[in-house]
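Lesson 9: reading folded outputs for more than one chain in a single document. The general rule is that every protein is listed as its sequence immediately followed by its structure tokens, and records are never interleaved. Here is the first one.
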Amino acid sequence: MFKINVFSLDDITMGTWIAMDEACARLGVRPQTVYAYVSRGKLEVMADPANTRRSLYRAEDVAALARRKQAGRKHETVASNTLFGAEPCIATALSAFFRGQLYYRGQEAGNLARSASVEDVARLIWAAEQPVTFACTSAPPQTPGRVAAFTMLAALAATGHSTRGRRNRVLHAECQGLVGQLANAFGASPGDKPLHLRFAKAWKLSAPVADHLRTAMVLLLDHELTSSAFSARITASTGASLPTCLLAGLATLSGPSHGDASGRVQALFNEVQRLGEDHVIGHHLSTGQPLAGFGHRMYPDGDPRASALLALCEPPQAIARFIEKASHLTGLQPNVDVALASLVAHHRLPTDAAFGLFATARSVGLLAHSLEQLAETQMIRPRGRYVGPMPTLTPDPAI
């Protein structure tokens, strides 16, 4: 679980901190929304000195949030802000951010990444009753990669069954098959071994390097309500099949501003190897172009996933100097995209290995979001705010 500050009675006054019931009453929200405010860093929390199993919330933060809610914003402004990240809009128990760390169902992702397999974390995040395996006996495609992966998913989506009226254990079994086939399409060796070992066998990697792949995939498995998770949830809310939900999520993930950001970093690394780090950094800074892979809005003090991965292996010297100088000159820390690209460069993995690892790992999270959305009966249907020319209305002949 996330760390809660503990104070003595001498450190606080009960007028400064309030209980959950009072916080909900003042804000007019449910406890899930209060938890979301805490995870976003908008609301300070501490353990109740009189009962450490309960939490107290800073009254000043609650008051500030209440004033904001009562500011009289127009309906369309509220809707627009909800969509674009100003406030939480979907309750989830899958993953969240607390004190600058990522958690999966209350367990810190960094701690899990030290020893847990992707299969272990999948069982946790899916709340599956049985152990999870991503076995696949089919031979990899002749040309593995994203073309094979998306083609496979599109075929399954065209013939898939709706999620409605099906038991969780059946859906979990289908999810396992989908992830296993996706790994296969990205080039993992067939078999029933854990995913990181299947990729390592296909790429002829040693056991220590295979463990690096495991760490990376666990850290990439989910990241709260990302654009791709939202796409998967929208699709799931219509009752679409699981392969369709996964295809929608991965299509969104493939954008260069999302799951394929490591490709932009790899392009930067190639420039560094050809031209030198000073030339590349100078060009980007002089032209006002941001350096791909540096900074993350969810981690203002640095992406802990990047720190964990970069500690595993030393990137080539020119790239290491580039990362150090870029961080110094921009004040931004490398994020997980830099770390993933560094891992690929250090171990000389296939060109598209970064996206393959990311997409396979995140497919577990996308399916978790799809499954969680099934508990909601209402279809996700945002409203548009029309800003085009006003229509020419035909007079009503009855008037």
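And here is the second record, again sequence then tokens.
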Amino acid sequence: MRITAGRVVMALGLAAAVAGVAWFLMPRPVPVETAAVARGRFVATVDEDGKTRIRERYVVAAPLAGRLTRVGLKAGDPVASDEVIATIMPPAAPLLDLRSRREAEERLGTAEAALERSKAAVERAQAQADQAKTDLDRARTLAAQGASTVQALERAELVQRVADRDLRAAEFQDHAAAHEVYQAKALLARYQDGADAPIERWNITAPVSGVVLRVAQESETVVQSGAPLLEIGDPRDLEIVTDVLSVDAVEIRPGAEVAIEHWGGPGVLSGRVRRIEPAAFTKISTLGVEEQRVNVLIDVLSPQELWKGLGDGYQLDTRITVFTRDDIEIIPAGALFRRGDNWSVYVVDDGRAQLRTIDLERRSGRFAAVKKELTPGERVIVYPSDQISSGVRVSLK
């Protein structure tokens, strides 16, 4: 049987059609994004934003009530220890109406008369005391000569003691009368001295050397005792306050290394955790969720010349180291997914995705550390979709 050229062509066309249909029906490789498994040092950190704070700040308050003169200092002005930074004058005495003033003048006259009467009483008591002393001396002389009895001597001694007590009482009364005169004069001093009377002032000095951080009251006004006037601190003595979740604070230890980023200057500053405050507080997150957070205090270790532009209350980012491990496999955290109770990844092997269960050591941020189930250089699928399963052909994007 002879095969014609037409049949050959027809057979080839049919084979090509079958091959085209087979290729069309064959599953196409799923495009995926992969990352290589690396081996090196893994560092787990707690990343939170924080702010700077002057370690020691002093709030200068009014020591007494009165009228505060205008404060000439501004925020940022340097001050020295014991330098006068504010002045307070005592409040002016209240005005008296005509009737009250007349009563005060009459009260002054009464006090002056009482003072004269007390002075006369003192002179009378002094004379009686002198006479009693003279009688006592005479009685002692007569008793020594035997010309007087012992009873007469005792009576003379008693009279002398009573006279001395009366003299002291008169002197006390005279002292009290003098104070009453001073009190009455003080009430009228506002009208008697006039505008030439000296104004008493109380100077407030800086407790330490530093810089004025804030002026609470700048204009002249009446202040009460204890009212805050201004704040003073040393901007070179900065610390960083970072509030972290309480579950993360459990892992942080004093002395932990801190990387300080996005602080406004070039490079990354180094720091160290000094203290983790023992009490947490409730804070509402940006999503409206209540969170228990803890303040972590951080010291800046980098030279002050590198961050001299930082001030009080500046914002920055902190990365607090809580775990380190050397010579371990590292993969992107996006490659991990749960399968049952285990962590798994998809590894690209000869163009196909292969499921592999791993033993996760630790994850932090964008990376995770894996124990020995992966080989450096292997490629894992990052963020695998539901189209990926074991044995599926894949292609790299």
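What the second record shows: The chain has a mean pLDDT of 85.
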